[in-house]
Amino acid sequence: MGPLPVKTLLAALACLASMILARPACAQGCGGANSGSCVTAHATPGCSDLTCCNTVCSFNPTCCSTAWDQSCADLADSSCIGLCGATASGECGLPHSNPGCSNAECCEAVCAVDPACCQFSWDTTCVFESDFYCISGPPVECGAAGQESCTITHASPGCADATCCTTVCGLDPTCCSNSWDSICVALATQYCAGCTVSCPAGSVTEPEACGARTNDACASGQAATPLAPGPGVCGTLDGAMSGSAWAGDRDTYSLTLTDTDGDGKVRFTMTLSSNAPAFAALVPATCPISIGTALVHANASGCTDTISAACVPPGNYRILVVPGSFPTPSVSSPVSCDLPRRYRLAYDAQQAGCQPVCSSSTGPCFDAHAGVGCVDSACCTATCNVDPFCCNQVWDTDCARSAAASCGAPIPPNDTCAGALPISVGPSVTFSTIRATAGSPALPASCETGTGIAFGADVWFAYDGERSGAVVASTCGSITDMRIAVYEGTCAGPVLVACGSSSIVCTPTSGARVQFQAVCGTQYLIRVGGENTAVAGSATLTLASQGPICPAFCPSDLNRDGAVGGADIGLLLGNWGWFGLGDLDVNGIVNGADLGILLGDWGACP
């Protein structure tokens, strides 16, 4: 770009003078709601980004007084570093120290899920996210000839139902650019009506016709349909509510479970799929049927298989199938035979796999896991006596919390903000929220990125900013889904500076990751808790930063009074054998090595 004309330079000097005198003339149209893009020419003066607009108009005041012509747009494109869409911001596929990137659409898509990319810097995480959110080339046409079903995984992108395909690709663009994988199928079954229940070869059709009532074992003149192990049966449900009770079809299937190895148990596995909410329950073969006596149950919807298993005594049983969610049969509106609830039910019975759960389980007692029972036999037995589900179905978060309360798991010392434990850049800190409580303050709506804004049980850490610049707080790789919020200020008046939950950068993506800009001399409170109110358990928190070390940082000054002395020794000894406060070498335990570091730092902080 050549030298500016003399008249333009004079106008710029005049504009600069008016800005110094706080006159608004040069800012006309800058940042206005109706202003156009700064990198696109338009007939009106000014543009939508206030900083970029003022920068351009300080060089060429006519951009803010006459029109934002092509010369103004070109100046913005080459000068406005950090503006989404400006060439000066740098390529979206390459990391750079300033925020934003040159592709406006891609930049805005990434910053919608990771605001730090437009606030601090376009780092390697932003580049990774741009690969995920910024699809190169046109997506596949939804509903094109030859495409496969939306509810079946396939290697090609898109699916046969154009409406469903468009909906799913709006949620996950890779479904229309890469392949229609299991995530796309899950989204299709959740958001698209009309999925089809798969009835495999060998399965039978329920002998009761839709609209008829012939196989409710406890209704007059009806009898349960015998069901054998194997591919199962495909059936339908129809009817309506009568007040708060279900008055429609309910199907029952009879079966006998036999114990042939003499251990008094049979491993029973039940599979249910349904095109709308329905549940199946294994109940004793008595009338009236009491859902409360169910030994095994499965909830299903969206045409995907739900599998439940448990070791049960041998005997005669029935499987009850009704619409709704266990234990309440219900529908939101009448179900007709034109559009009935369709389901597939199957079961299997095995003699193996019923050894005493609490003497064989290797799962942790204070964390949710996929198996049943937990490694501490006494704790396992006590928990399952209160909640048999934990030894029959799965050891979920409720089981872990129950075990923690009854088996003496410690309450985290940093359950409240006032007890925040120090954390430093470097090694990960392991913690558990299993006996923590959910604190405050509530998160604002701006923290919503698809996982809600509810905080589960949480713990607190304090970062004293030993490094300035960008700091990343992460729970990537943790077994528990966590949410992170970072605050400035004190516990009495925390000010939110960053928040986040599930991040595509983490593996698995349930890990949380947030980035904030640290300033030397400022303390930051880091709150970590369940991604929702039902989640608690163990996790790790790691802080990473490439920023320079702050000159006055003094980690051994545990009480932050400006000197390392007897009070700090007292705090360290009070946490001896634990982690957190006093763990100066950040190895997960406070011991003699940390005491040695403290004594070496004795005296006034530098």
What can you see in these coordinates?
Strands 2, 6, 8, 9, 11 and 12 form a six-stranded mixed beta sheet that branches. Strands 1-3-13-7-10 form a five-stranded mixed beta sheet, with no helix packed on it. A five-stranded mixed beta sheet has the order 14-16-21-18-19, with no helix packed on it. It is flat, with a radius of gyration of 31 Å. A hairpin with a 2-residue loop joins β4 and β5 (245-246). The chain folds into five domains: 6-132, no CATH class; 213-349, Jelly Rolls (Sandwich), CATH 2.60.120; 357-406, no CATH class; 417-550, Sandwich (Jelly Rolls), CATH 2.60.120.380; 554-606, Dockerin domain (Type 1 dockerin domain), CATH 1.10.1330. It is 21% helix and 21% strand. It has 606 residues and is α+β, with helices and mostly antiparallel strands. The chain has helices at residues 6-20, 50-59, 62-65, 70-79, 104-113, 116-119, 124-133, 162-171, 182-191, 357-360, 377-386, 389-392, 397-406, 566-574, 592-600; strands at 204-205, 225-226, 233-237, 241-242, 245-246, 251-257, 266-274, 278-284, 296-300, 306-312, 315-325, 328-329, 341-350, 421-422, 429-432, 458-463, 469-474, 482-488, 495-500, 513-518, 524-530, 538-545, 563-564, 603-604.
